[in-house]
Automatic annotation (TrEMBL):
<dbReference type="InterPro" id="IPR045214">
    <property type="entry name" value="Surf1/Surf4"/>
</dbReference>
<dbReference type="InterPro" id="IPR002994">
    <property type="entry name" value="Surf1/Shy1"/>
</dbReference>
<keyword id="KW-1003">Cell membrane</keyword>
<protein>
    <recommendedName>
        <fullName>SURF1-like protein</fullName>
    </recommendedName>
</protein>
<keyword id="KW-0812">Transmembrane</keyword>
<dbReference type="Pfam" id="PF02104">
    <property type="entry name" value="SURF1"/>
</dbReference>
<feature type="transmembrane region" description="Helical">
    <location>
        <begin position="218"/>
        <end position="238"/>
    </location>
</feature>
<keyword id="KW-0472">Membrane</keyword>
<comment type="similarity">
    <text>Belongs to the SURF1 family.</text>
</comment>
<keyword id="KW-1133">Transmembrane helix</keyword>
């Protein structure tokens, strides 16, 4: 009755179904884990951004790797901006996706030490190889608030650290790299400036990270699991349809054979 399942076509189709089911289930769990990761990240962002700011020296130190638990942690720093060693970070986008620079300025801390401050975004000038016009930060001692971020690396960001860049241009925000250029220790990670907001809106302060949207990962997970559940259902439907078609074909062949036999008997009787 179901011997056709042993045919080459049906063996291949069955094996394909058996492979697709676990693959689709695994893809569903992959999307589900991405959903869980996004939810956890949103909770981390929301908690750290809203937390009471701590002095940056309590959160990091020279050579320190900022742990994930401290990403976006609100921090304060008091010191004097060192504009003589200010650099710009190439190929960075604004809030409306225009390409330009991020302005990275060392802040020499009162009491010792240096922390890097990403003061925000500025547009390209007429010459992208030149140092752009950057509004100066406040002079003298200033207290700032920012979000603590980890050092950027090529492996972590996907940004290639190019050589032969114009003077005072960099590709990555990296405290170890800047420490070598400055010739003095720099606190690990950097601060993404949130206050005070630069007068005139330039540099353009970097927007707060999104802690609300969770994406469509959960919907994709359910979709993959429904696909996985649909594979055996589809297989059964195809098997039943194949059996009906074969039964119908066999019945038709039997009827044709019977009609042919009857016609032959009638012809024999007539000739007799």
């Amino acid at each position: 009755m179901y011997r056709f399942l042993l045919s080459r076509q049906w063996v291949i189709l069955t094996l394909l179904a058996l492979v697709l089911i676990p693959v689709m289930v695994e893809l569903g769990f992959w999307q589900f884990h991405r959903h869980e990761h996004r939810v956890a990240q949103n909770q981390l962002i929301a908690g750290n951004v809203k937390a009471k700011p701590k002095p940056v020296g309590e959160l990091t130190s020279p050579g320190h790797t900022v742990p994930r638990a401290d990403f976006w942690r609100a921090a304060t720093a008091t010191g004097t901006f060192d504009t003589a060693h200010e650099v710009v970070v190439r190929r960075r986008t604004s809030a409306d996706d225009q390409v330009g620079f991020h302005v990275l300025t060392p802040l020499d801390l009162t009491g010792g030490g240096t922390v890097l401050v990403n003061r925000g975004w500025v547009a390209f000038g007429t010459d992208q190889q030149a140092f752009p016009h950057v509004p100066a930060p406040p002079k003298g001692e200033v207290t700032i608030t920012g979000r603590l971020k980890a050092d950027e690396t090529t492996s972590g960001s996907g940004i290639k650290d190019l050589e032969g860049l114009p003077p005072r241009h960099v590709m990555l925000i990296n405290s170890a790299q800047q420490s070598r250029l400055l010739g003095r220790p720099v606190l690990g990670g950097y601060l993404e400036l949130t206050a005070p907001v630069p007068p005139g809106g330039s540099p353009e302060v970097i927007p707060a990270p999104d802690s609300e949207s969770i994406g469509a990962h959960m919907a994709y997970a359910v979709q993959w699991w429904l696909f996985a559940a649909g594979v055996p259902v589809g297989w059964v439907v195809l098997v039943r349809r194949e059996r009906r078609e074969r039964d119908a074909a066999a019945a038709g062949a039997a009827q044709d054979a019977a009609e042919a036999a009857e016609a032959e008997r009638s012809a024999t009787a007539s000739s007799a």
